[in-house]
Structure formats: structure tokens, C-alpha cells
Write a structure and sequence with these properties.
The structure is a single chain. This protein has 74 residues and is α+β, with helices and mostly antiparallel strands. The chain contains three helices and two strands; from the N terminus they run αβαβα. α2 (30-34) links the parallel β1 and β2 (37-41). The chain is flat and about 45 Å long.
């Protein structure tokens, strides 16, 4: 969460997906200065996750295409 908040540009939106433990203190001063949005998303159950992983292991979900670039192209 800390990394996500730190890299948000002005007007950025951070979506936290799923449940995670712990806490992250955040200064409310950042909200108006960065005009950022924080949003939570909780989708599915543990059984849904198991079903998804079974599909991935069976090769029924295509891999996410990745493209490698040099650092100076970033």
C-alpha cells in the first residue's frame, strides 16, 4: 500500500484488491495535494480462488503477455 500511494501521480487512483492484514497510516494532507482516490475491491470467495487456480494449472487461462524493454525506454 505504501508503494502504491507513493507512486500515485496527481489525480491517481489506487485500488486495493482482496483482504490483507496489517495497517497503513496515511496523512489526509496527501488527498487534496495529490487529488488521489483510494478504493477497495473484494471479489470472490476462497472456493472461487481455488477454481481459478485449477483452471490456470490446467492451462485453460492464457498467460498475460509480457514485453521486456530496456530501462531507458521506460
Amino acid at each position: 500500500m505504501e508503494f502504491g500511494v507513493n507512486i500515485l501521480r496527481k489525480g491517481g487512483k489506487l485500488v486495493m484488491v482482496g483482504l490483507y492484514g496489517g495497517a497503513y497510516p496515511i496523512s489526509t494532507v496527501l488527498f487534496p495535494f495529490k487529488m488521489m482516490t483510494l478504493e477497495g475491491s473484494y471479489v470472490g470467495t476462497l472456493d472461487d480462488l481455488r477454481e481459478l487456480l485449477a483452471l490456470v494449472q490446467a492451462g485453460k487461462i492464457p498467460p498475460i503477455p509480457l514485453e521486456t524493454r530496456r530501462a531507458d525506454e521506460g
